[in-house]
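Figure 2 data, in text form.
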Amino acid sequence: MAIHSGAGKPATQSDLVNVPKLVSAYYLNEPDLEQNPEHCVAFGTSGHRGCSYDVKFNESHILAITQAICDYRKQNNIFGPLFLGKDTHALSEAAYNSAIEVLVANEVQVITQENDDFTPTPVISHAVVCHNKLRPHELADGIVVTPSHNPPEDGGFKYNPPNGGPADTDVTKWIEDRANQLLLEDLVEVELFPFAKAARSGFIKYQDLMTPYIEDLINVVDVKAIAKANIKVGIDPLGGSGINFWPIIAEKFALDLTIVNESVDPRFAFMPLDKDGKIRMDCSSPYAMANLIALKDDFDISIGNDPDYDRHGIVTPDGLMNPNHFLAVAIDYLLNHRDWSKGVEIGKTLVSSAMIDRVVARNNRQVREVPVGFKWFVEGLSTGTLAFGGEESAGASFLRFDGTVWNTDKDGFIMGLLAAEILAVTGKTPSALYKELELEFGAPIYKRIDAAASSAQKERLKGLSAKDVTADTLAGEPILQKLTHAPGNNAAIGGLKVVTENGWFAARPSGTEDIYKIYLESFKGEEHLALLEKEAKKLVDSVIS
């Protein structure tokens, strides 16, 4: 895709969303599933998302989803409190209030951040995990109202069950089906309690979720080493829900942290445009992170996070690190600076860099390769059998120093602080350490592209078996693996991955567009990558056409 002429440049007035109009549409537009099936509730890898203009994220959707979650809780004997968080998107406040009206009507004890403040995803996960560790007979769960890094006009709503992590497919399918049934029946079974009365009902408890999370950081990151080395850290919250955490983290642990942008604006007017000309708070994009990259020489380490703080962007004096590069460095460092059991594995998604496999093998550990989605890491992090779980899209979490669970969702705080810890302990930036890994293992080139595909072709791609791939070679090398199920847990990947000694590609259909995504990586340079791309497209097209 061509890079937009405004990419990396400041947003103009015409790029900004009309917040009053957007919020009005949230209340005024009504989904009609019979006439417009695209209006239905649809949970992707991170909950239900959409825009109120498109009748995909409206009051009726949130009332139905929340009632479905309440019904799911009753069916599964979840009677503890529900931790409710929200980010800084324009529709998050409205959806948060709608959810409260249903939760209170269903007599669910809601715990939310005091002063009605924003609450990041990893903080909700941490709160659920800590509560259930102490009270296993009174299980809690959580909801985070966020569309993550999506544009300002989008809303999002995701459910974290008692394991604290993203709900798995069985759970989201149940909630999705129940919510759509409620919508089809005009919400007649949705229980509602007016917000003004709900706030006085006693079912809402405003609690300090910030302090327990911050005080516990000392058990997962070596903040003392960061302070001792006087690492100078720049923070760009990108207008997100963690903005009020950083000053307290700095004071608590005597860290030299500077917030370079204190703006909170539901239009995100301060953001540079992303590669496609849209405002998107993607901390892995050099275009969205242009403001922080411009300050790279002012700090030893700089950190950016998306609005719900489940992703991280790491900037060194060399620039913004590729997410795959930082994952490899983080894993190598942790395996050499944590006294974890030799039996713990490292979790990676099947579209993450093969550099991770080489690093883990050198450290005499095993990789657990799973399909796309952080939900596949939840059980392993919960039980301590996975030391680390990371996605190529700049989301990861890892265990405490003692090898027990920290949280079970992606955590942008600890990944950012880990970058500072790495510099403090090794004296080298993560980008410098990645260059050393390249000298040891080679310098892979990673790419993701989109290719056109009809709905029928996408379905065929989802249903492929290894036998459907008859080719023996790829880009001049023998094919070593043809995967339609992830080797780490045998779960269907909803596509295909083909692996050779020095390269691989994976193809997955888009859930929302008439395209399929191809991820590619070569350890043999640009020419080999181009050949890999050409043959990957040809191979996939041959088996889905």
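Caption note: Residues 106 and 191 are 7 Å apart (CA to CA).
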